[in-house]
Amino acid sequence: MAGAVPYDSEQSAHGDSASGYDPNYVPDSVKSFVVHMYRQIREKNVYEIHQMYETSFQSISDRFFKDVPWPSVDAVATYVDNDHVFCLLYREMWFRHLYARLSPTLKQRIDSWDNYCNLFQVVLHGVVNMQLPNQWLWDMVDEFVYQFQSFCQYRAKMKNKTEQEIALLRQYDQAWNVYGVLNYLQALVEKSSIIQILEQEKEGLEQFTATDGYDYSGGSNVLKVLGYFSMIGLLRVHCLLGDYHTGLKCILPIDITQQGVYTSVIGSHITTIYHYGFANLMLRKYTEAIREFNKILLYIFKTKQYHQKSPQYEQILKKNEQMYALLAVTLSLCPQLKLVEETVNSQLREKYGEKMLRMQRFDDEAFALYDELFSYACPKFITPSAPSYDEPLVNYNQDAYRLQLKLFLYEVKQQQLLSGIRTFLNVYSTISLAKLASYMEVDEHTLRTVLMTYKHKMHSVNSDGKIVSNMDTNFYIDDDMVHVVESKAPKKYGDYFMRQIVKLEGIMTDIDRIKLE
Amino acid sequence: MGREMTNQKPQSEMSYTVQQLVSVNPYNPDILPDLENYVNEQVSSQTYSSNANLCLLRLYQFEPERMSTQIVARILIKALMAMPAPDFSLCLFLIPERVMRTEWVLVLWKGWGMTIGMQMEDQFKTLIVLSHYLETARFRQFWDEAAKSRHILEVVPGFEQAIQAYAIHVLSIAYQKVPRSVLAEAINIEGLVLDKFIEHHITNSGWAIEKNQNKGQLIIFPHNEFNDPELKKSAADGIPLENITRILPILG
Asked: Which of A295, B16, B63, B192 is 20 to 30 A from B237, comparing alpha carbons?
């Protein structure tokens, strides 16, 4: 995502150096774009705004601004009555384009932070009267978190920082400060009352999901939907910090087993499930992770063709690959294959079948594979604290990642002997501890500890404090005998009866309608 | 076990205020001293709040200069006591390596053995070793190490009982019937004290005893869905209430 030429400021003097970028030059297409967009926003034509935002902006960027920024906001402001809010929105797109195609300077990073602060403050004051497409509102939150992550990575690479950069960092220590980021997201969640809205919606007292978050009674969807997406933003930030438990708590008001506003934008759907699954993996809630990865991977498989032309396509593919890697890892630790749908399973075997076999051996090579897949698929963890500028300048941008990786491998190591147990449990229905111990080449005492470890590791504690089983092959011990429990899929009698009841009722209603002559 | 252990003691005023702070305004550097005081109160009143402690560790992560190793050690001990909940891991995820001054060197022995060589604060090293033993159900090694580290652990009352509760939990999800010697090793109690302990659980927790072939004592745990496959099956065939409500109009 980095280009070669950083620009010092969007307000640089006329006619910049090598590539001749003039921030004040406004091509006609840009002029009509902003005029059009401004009008559509004033008239609340969400569909048109979406078209312009998603399609026109991209095509103009591809034609004129492949590797230069868009015209400065000052240059276009005159065409839009110098509208304050529109200018904030324009700058938001301006910076996003910059980050995507070029490499932002420190000053630009700080300016972007300022812009987000101004934009969010306007929204939080409740004076915004627009309806914006969900795609855009999601992109704002997503980009906000992305730029925060990018800033932390940037800041942690102290080795080649110039004096000037360090001075700027010291001066603007509030920019992309972790407290600021978290508090803005939290403020959006609170001010929008989105949690209460979702609660009341369950009781039929509110309409939110049904309208995809849009307000059809003349109001604005911006604060509510930003508040909603901010919950996902918080999940993401907490995962970047290694706080999986809190991340999952932030997303609790959203029922991810159902459709919702989060599924209305593919980017938000994928980001939510990716982080949800990853957090569950780190918390040893393997079954839950497998279930959700399976669902989303199937969904992507079926729908990705519709997104081929969209600017998010590459990101969708990338996350798809990462989630296959995470699924491979999770299944190697907890082989609940019956939870995986056939299509997903065949894709998985194609990509990682060989590696999964090797990972389940838990030898040195296996650990290297766990390392490889985890490193490929994990979020870009960050160190939230500012560096001490007086200490020698080193790069510590990898520290957070290294810690999470180490803790993950530590967990894998603790589960090393479990896969051996599994093999034997799949073969025997009862076996004495003595025999099993001799097959596994350990003494009986060690075997008892391994069996208990298996039970402990394959159970997790959910948010109510209840124990939940992730066991694939179940067993219990009776004195010195291990009894293996076949895990048959339970016959869903209840389900079957329910469906028949409803069906019969339908038939009877139909018959009632028949009028006999 | 459990997220918010109160051990039947009423929530204090401080705990109520702190809970409010954590849920309403968690990303606030000013609440750090309150959270630190709350850790000490949890220790002295034998209560526990994982949310508040995670919140504090988060603040330490944002401002490492303000971190207190003593408080972190207490949080880690409390987290150990919360097992089988993964609180100890949750805490480790939030403690940056440079703060713990660690250099993790995993020396992989073949099979079951593992040594963690590191240079770090002694207490953190000890606690991680203790956690490792508990996570891998190596109770004998755990109690040996705990005895050696009494000076670190005795600051937190209730530690022993909490670990014994965890040990019993693991035994009861793995065993229907467990030999007395295995139980004794797991909870570090023997002889007459163990007899009394077992009596207590027979009366209050539905345990039973019988003799096995070697004339040793077998402790029988009450059946639950984890050590008894029959019970698990019936749990899985349940129907959520929401689904029933859909057909109530038809039935009615």
From this structure: A295
The residue count of chain A comes to 517
pLDDT values of chain A reduced to their tens digit, one per residue, 517 residues:
344 344 444 444 333 444 578 888 999 999 999 999 999 999 999 999 999 999 999 999 999 999 899 999 999 999 999 999 999 999 999 999 999 999 999 999 999 999 999 999 999 998 888 999 999 999 999 999 999 999 999 999 988 888 899 999 999 999 999 999 999 999 999 999 999 999 999 888 888 888 888 988 888 999 999 999 999 999 999 999 999 999 999 999 999 998 899 999 999 999 999 999 999 999 999 999 999 999 999 999 999 899 888 888 999 999 999 999 999 999 999 998 889 999 999 999 999 999 999 999 888 899 999 999 999 999 999 999 988 887 778 888 899 999 999 999 999 999 988 888 888 888 888 999 999 999 989 999 999 999 999 999 999 888 788 888 888 788 999 988 999 987 665 556 676 777 788 888 888 888 888 877 6
- Does A476 sit within 8 Å of B229, measured CB to CB? yes
Which residue carries 């003349």 as its tokens?
Answer: A218
SS3 label, residue B161? helix
Q: Cα–Cα distances in Å, from A374 out to A317, A327, A346, A464, B136? A: 17, 10, 21, 29, 23
* Angle made by CA atoms B171, B172, B176, in degrees to the nearest 5: 105
- Both ends of chain B: CA-CA distance in Å? 43
Residues of B in contact with A417 (CB under 8 A): 111-112
Q: How far is A207 from chain B (nearest CA, A)?
A: 20
What CA dihedral angle connects B242, B246, B249 and B250, to 10 degrees?
-130
What global pTM score does this model have? 0.88
End-to-end CA distance of chain A: 75
Kindly determine whether residue A455 and residue B170, on different chains, have CB atoms separated by under 8 Å.
Answer: yes
CA-based torsion, B84, A326, A154, A137: positive or negative:
negative
Three-state secondary structure string covering A470-505: CCCCEEEEECCEEEEECCCCCCCHHHHHHHHHHHHH
CA angle B226, B229, B234 (to 5 degrees): 95
Measured CA to CA, the distance from residue A415 to residue A452 in angstroms comes to 11
Name which of B27, B94, B250 is nearest A505 (Cβ-Cβ): B250
Q: How far is CA A471 from CA A324, A346, A456, in A?
A: 21, 23, 10
Instruction: Pick left, alpha or beta for residue B2 (phi over 0 → left; psi -120 to 50 → alpha; otherwise beta).
Output: left
The residue of chain B nearest to residue A441, with distances taken between CA atoms, is B111
User: What is the token pair recorded at B45?
Assistant: 């009143």
User: Which residue from B minimizes the CA distance to A242?
Assistant: B93
Six-digit token string for B173: 């999800």
Phi-psi region of A240 (alpha: psi -120 to 50; beta: other; left: phi over 0): alpha
Q: What are phi and psi of B55, to 5 degrees?
A: -60, -45
Which residues of B fall within a CB distance of 8 Å from A450? 112, 137
Block residue for tokens 């000890």: B126
Measure CB to CB from residue A242 to each of B28, B29, B93 and give the nearest one: B93
Selection from A403, A88, A103, A116 nearest residue A242 by Cα: A403
| Cβ atoms of A322 and A377 closer than 8 Å | yes
Helix (H, G, I), strand (E, B) or coil at B218: strand
Q: Write the single-letter amino acid at A439.
A: Y
B156 to chain A, closest Cα gap in Å = 22
Rg of chain B in Å (alpha carbons): 22
